[in-house]
Amino acid sequence: MGNTTQIEQALERFKAAQEQMMAMNYATSILFWDASTGAPKSGADKRSTSIGTMSGFMYKLLVNETMDADLNLLTNHLDALSDVDRVRVVDTKKEYDKLTKIPMEAYQKYSALTSKASMIWEEAKENADFKLFEPYLEEIVSYLLKFAEYRGYQNHPYNLYIDDFEEGMTIDQLNTFFDTLRARIVPLLEKIQASGKQVATDFLGQAFPVDKQHTVSTDLLKTIGFDLNRGWFKESVHPFTMGLDVNDVRLTTHYYENDLKSALLSSAHEGGHAIYEQNFSEKVQGTPLATGTSNGFHESQSRIYENNFVLSRSFLSYFLLKLKADFPEQLGSIGDLAFYEGMNKVEPSLIRIEADELTYSLHIMIRYEIELGLFDGSIKVSDLPRVWNEKVKAYLGITPKHDGEGVLQDVHWSEGMFGYFPTYALGSAYAAQLMHYMKQDLDVDTCLKNGDFKPLTAWLNDKVHQYGSLVKPVDLMKQITGEAFNATYYCDYLEQKYSELYGLK
């Protein structure tokens, strides 16, 4: 048993090591930001070398005999710690065990494999040649199954990888979620396609000068509640958000001159992530808990701003007046309803990142079913092109012409990121559940009609953002709504919105 002095000394060493790791992570994040927002490509090798060196330092700070002893002591005396320190220790012990249960030699070989696989994937995608990527993906899945045995898991190896991204989530819960989606959203899509209603979107494809798009996107971020005095907004090839500190949150969008919708929605989406990162309480600031509680909850914040708020008819009516002032020639004659319908048009696409709000989660369902099959052995890697095309046809009613726009479209599997995809769909579903309960406390539609996001963002600050990852996702949903995650709210929201938009009975 450790005495009080030993516990205090262990906690002090633990916090000091974490502060050093956070400093290293801050520096590597800055290098990534630079690389993504205009740093010279000629410096890529040096940046990669620096990131690799700092990653090695971070590993040594976490995995060593002193940290092992301190974590064991602190884990055995959690009741002597504050609530923040308790969660910090538990989270770090989990990460420590994850890293140390896998033999170093095996992990190094796996890291080399995924590095090579990512390059091979790029070539395979470009040439629509799955056979080129197939042996690498087979080996990645094999390694992950082996690592699951090393780490230990409950009931199914895939549960381990889901939990890495969405703590507390299991395949039983995901199966219930996707079964509900399959039963309600696939028939809804079929009804929309059979309705014959044509929605015009040509006005969104006119020429919209990029400089004006940037001004409009910046104004949109301010409107929804992002504090630009504590953040930075730039352009990158792929939009992303980076929370370095509550006082240094950075996000990007990408502009296409002939696609106004893309920049507006990516700005709103990344804005939701960024608002989360700006509003952690003082209690968790400066600790590793100053981050989203899970991938799914972080995605819920981007989705609630993008879909439930910005794409609502109430807000688009307000926003169109502002857009007409900036783009009078392009949008001057467009009415509120036509603008709302155009922004929310349902049209199944082959590419996940181009999917509309209704069909997006069907893309995720396809990937989830395949990942589960690969892990339980019911699907072989060699069968993926056929299985992928069959599922796309069944759920979306379309078929890829080649594997480049089919099974090879995402980078995730080449990087070993199994268990990540489901969090995209969970985010949309969490958002709908949060929205249901927000409407019990606030007149959301009136706020959106007036472009007044302060009450909405304040509600999310209070219910979600302030806790960071101090409260875990399962507990946070129950704390906010009084019930567990429930996919019914998401399906109800989609059915109501799109049945009305397409005039379905």
From TrEMBL:
Q: Which reaction does it catalyse?
A: Release of a C-terminal amino acid with broad specificity, except for -Pro
Q: Which GO terms describe its molecular function?
A: carboxypeptidase activity
Determine the domain of life of the protein's source.
Answer: Bacteria
Does this entry carry the keyword Hydrolase?
yes
Q: Does the keyword Hydrolase apply?
A: yes
Class in the EC hierarchy, top level: hydrolase
Q: What does this protein do?
A: Broad specificity carboxypetidase that releases amino acids sequentially from the C-terminus, including neutral, aromatic, polar and basic residues.
Protein family per UniProt: Belongs to the peptidase M32 family.
> Which Pfam families does this entry report, sorted A to Z?
Peptidase_M32
Alphabetized SUPFAM superfamilies for the sequence: Metalloproteases ('zincins'), catalytic domain
Question: What keywords tag this UniProt record?
Answer: Carboxypeptidase, Hydrolase, Metal-binding, Metalloprotease, Protease
Q: Which organism is it from?
A: Fusibacter tunisiensis
EC assignment: the record states 3.4.17.19
Question: This chain belongs to which protein, by name?
Answer: Metal-dependent carboxypeptidase
